[in-house]
């Protein structure tokens, strides 16, 4: 089995373990949504500001890794990248503390009041971002998934338990939270050194040759512009700042459920970047189109199965939450709206990766800025001119994501002659819709736990029966001993 399949599978396994921890944590976080909302506000606000420190340098560590490695200067590129991030952070701090003197009203915002927690996290996450992209060049993404997905969830859970169950102060709980991210950065450094011994090299002569630094800086700058489309961070910030920290807690619990749908996407996209880059360099559009369709169908099928299970199981899951999940029940439409938008995103595959790794990467930037502007504008409208609250945020996200992906599909089709869409996706949609419909009309038992197991089980049985006869997804390739044995060799 190929390294892509093994690493993608391992990545997904870690993702599902992380999701299970997140699912378990939901029942705990429901006891104090405001503090959980505070943790998520600090984290996502830091994530939103990290691009202003990294400035796209992490993307250049993927784009130019092949060239630098051929010249045996990839360690030089990593060293200078880390040094630049440290310098950028000092400039960012200077601007951060000067702006409130020009606009005093900023001091009334939560972002200023929580700066002691947000600023250190920005620095830690910025360095982690460089190491994450750099290690992906070795087609090793499993350990980075532990650092990026699993440990942050444990940081949230640990900090919350210290605050709620052990009655420690919020300051001590946040100290534990930050300590986990120090551990993550240390782990990245250790793991990168294991892949290939780190040799810090701050010489600049290589980047001066043929003005390579200009090409590096230009790509980094446009990569930075492309990060403006992080709609999840934008949503978290705007909910926490303008709606409330408790609602931010609810939003993130729903996000934890919806994120289950897109876990396969994350693993495949990270490991596929070097393959996309090679196909583009070789001009092999036929192979890229084949790989694009195959990958898109795989993640869409898995996502659709998970979404169907969530749809029919959610009403019974919240019955076991504190106060029977009253607030979650109130915002159940968020699951339908946002989940459907995520499925559309899955179906479009790695459109953005193709554009960003090609000579047309600047177009991707324009589209990402459009997404950011559309998301902010729609969020602002729904927050200030409707009473939809989180449902409005979900509608904003859905409109932005669908618009964003339609533009990228059209561009890739006309420029590269590649498309993620296939007729099999229509059959997947029909099978999953029929499975959901049957599960919903079947009678309920009086025991909610039985319903929670029984309804999603019906969905799974119907989907896999449908897949057995239509042969849409090659399940047998993944449910055999040879693949499982190779998948669990963590190399």
Would you give an account of this structure?
With 491 residues, the protein is mainly α. It is 81% helix and 0% strand.
Name its key features.
mainly alpha, 24 helices, 491 residues, single chain, 81% helix
Set out the fold topology.
Layout: H1 3-29, H2 33-49, H3 51-54, H4 57-63, H5 65-70, H6 74-102, H7 110-113, H8 115-136, H9 142-164, H10 170-195, H11 205-208, H12 212-226, H13 231-243, H14 245-282, H15 285-317, H16 326-330, H17 332-347, H18 351-356, H19 361-385, H20 390-415, H21 423-441, H22 448-470, H23 475-478, H24 481-487
Shape: globular
| Major sheet characteristics | none
Fraction of residues in β-strands = under 5%
Please give the alpha-carbon distance between the first and last residues: 14 Å
Instruction: Tally the helices.
Output: 24
Arithmetic mean pLDDT: 89
Helix content: over 70%
**What structural class do the secondary elements suggest?**
mainly alpha
């Amino acid at each position: 089995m190929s390294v892509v399949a093994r690493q993608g599978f391992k990545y997904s396994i870690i993702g599902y373990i992380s999701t299970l921890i997140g699912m378990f944590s939901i029942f705990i976080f429901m006891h104090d949504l405001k503090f959980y909302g505070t943790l998520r506000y600090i984290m996502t606000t830091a994530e939103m500001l990290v691009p202003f420190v990294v400035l796209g340098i992490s993307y250049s560590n993927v784009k130019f890794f092949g060239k630098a490695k051929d010249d045996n200067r990839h360690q030089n590129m990593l060293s200078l990248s880390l040094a630049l991030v440290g310098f950028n952070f000092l400039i960012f701090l200077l601007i951060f503390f000067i702006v409130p003197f020009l606009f005093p009203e900023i001091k009334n915002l939560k972002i200023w009041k929580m700066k002691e927690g947000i600023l250190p996290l920005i620095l830690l996450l910025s360095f982690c971002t460089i190491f994450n992209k750099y290690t992906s060049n070795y087609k090793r993404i499993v350990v980075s998934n532990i650092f990026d997905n699993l440990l942050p969830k444990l940081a949230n859970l640990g900090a919350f338990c210290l605050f709620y169950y052990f009655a420690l102060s919020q300051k001590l709980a946040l100290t534990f939270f930050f300590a986990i991210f120090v551990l993550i950065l240390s782990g990245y450094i250790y793991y990168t050194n294991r892949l290939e011994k780190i040799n810090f090299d701050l010489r600049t002569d290589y980047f001066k040759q043929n003005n390579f630094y200009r090409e590096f800086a230009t790509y980094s700058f446009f990569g930075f512009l492309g990060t403006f489309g992080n709609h999840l961070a934008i949503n978290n910030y705007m909910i926490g700042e303008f709606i409330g920290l408790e609602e931010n807690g609810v939003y993130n619990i729903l996000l934890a459920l919806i994120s289950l749908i897109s876990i396969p996407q994350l693993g495949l996209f990270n490991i596929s970047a070097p393959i996309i880059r090679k196909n583009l360099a070789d001009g092999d559009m036929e192979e890229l189109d084949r790989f694009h369709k195959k990958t898109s169908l795989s993640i869409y099928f898995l996502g659709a199965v998970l979404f169907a299970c969530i749809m029919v199981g959610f009403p019974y899951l919240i019955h076991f939450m504190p106060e029977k999940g009253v607030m979650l029940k109130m915002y159940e439409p968020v699951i339908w709206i946002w989940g459907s938008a995520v499925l559309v995103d899955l179906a479009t595959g790695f459109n953005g990766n193709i554009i960003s790794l090609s000579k047309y990467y600047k177009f991707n930037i324009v589209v990402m800025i459009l997404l950011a502007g559309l998301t902010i504008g729609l969020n602002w409208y729904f927050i200030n001119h409707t009473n939809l609250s989180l449902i409005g945020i979900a509608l904003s996200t859905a409109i932005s994501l669908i618009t964003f992906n339609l533009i990228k599909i059209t561009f890739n089709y006309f420029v590269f002659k590649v498309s993620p869409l296939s007729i099999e996706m229509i059959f997947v949609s029909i099978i999953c819709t029929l499975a959901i419909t049957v599960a919903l009309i079947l009678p309920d038992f009086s025991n909610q736990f039985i319903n929670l197991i029984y309804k999603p089980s019906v969905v799974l049985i119907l989907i896999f029966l449908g897949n057995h006869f239509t042969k849409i997804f090659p399940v047998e390739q993944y449910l055999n001993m040879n693949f499982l044995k190779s998948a669990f060799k963590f190399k």
